[in-house]
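Write out the 3D structure for:
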Amino acid sequence: MSLFLVVCIVMGLTALFGFLNDRVLHLQQSIGLMILAVGFTFLLAALSALGIFGDFEHFKDFVSQLSLNDTLLNGLLCFLLFAGSVNVNLRELGEERRVILTLAVGATLVGATLVGFGLWAFLGAFGIGLGLVYAFVFGALISPTDPIAALAILGKIGLPPRLEAIINGESLFNDGVGVVIFTIALTVAMGTAQPSALDALVLFLQEVLGGIALGLVASVVMHFMLSRTHDYGTQVLTSLSVVGLAYATAEHIEVSGPIAIVVTGLVMGNITRPRLEKRKLFPLKTFWRAVDEGLNSIVFVLIGLHIALVQFSLLALLVAACVIVICLIARWLSVYITLGGLVRAGQLRADLLGLSNLLTWGGLRGGLAIAMAMSLPNGPEKNLILEMTFCVVAFSLIVQGLTIGKLFKADSLSRLLK
């Protein structure tokens, strides 16, 4: 099947599911698309089992061609991160920089560690073999909150500005931290290297600081070109090319691409965009909003379709249910411990318990976690990690995403930060 046909089929399914959600389900767009994609996949599996649809393996081959890990990690992610970060207020991020940095780095590290130890102990108690290093691999890929999911879902519930800045800032930056931890843990698990604590620190600083530096360079290029052109087509091509080339360059020089693109988006949205003429600004904003909405929709459909590649069993579902609890507990403890340090140091005045509850239930996981799980080398560890990842992501997006607006009302949210 040609790449062009595959892309057209995915776009057609996304449009169909979007129409059905708008006319029938009336759910938040991202959640509705994922539910319909999962339902579509199960329907095809059932029809295949009844001999009506044909061989379900053909559909699995089609989904394999979509390759979420390549499609997202090496393609769509840079444009989604830019489209999300370009609308984030840099001044508000600066005001909450201590909280955002603490969550993005501290809570992610603590959460990955807690999930790793908790998962290893839990599976070991039931005789399920998963080494401690691979347990940390899972902890690294599942601990960061997904920027795509957070910006697509939490942005719709009407958060107070300070809370919105914290959640947006954490979700935009902690995926870079998670990718670094994931890379280190996977390197150790595969036996290609045994990095020391100093090596890990150097790699972390290289990824983060290098990503920031590259993002600033890309921002200067984009600012120079956009402020000196009046043609809409040239502006669109400039923004697309700078984002794409910056992300590709980050992969080549081994720095954090997500962080580089977030920095580029923040500078574009807060420094370059206010200096553009209004007649030039509106069509460019409209374009990137369309990119954001369209690619987000496609990503959530891809997540739902990829359930076809996961081999579930009753034991796996029972294990996954317990893993969901482990991840929620680890997330709550990581947030409470790290933010508690700020509260005790007098750097943050907040309802610590209430804020921890919100950031735990609002700590959504999404396609980024599945993409990292699918990038693992083939083996029994990959199958188990992929099953657990998909269940955690599905619970996060569907259960947490649908209920967060009901559990946290506007009046209670306004009292969390003092």
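Residues 59 and 308 are 8 Å apart (CA to CA).
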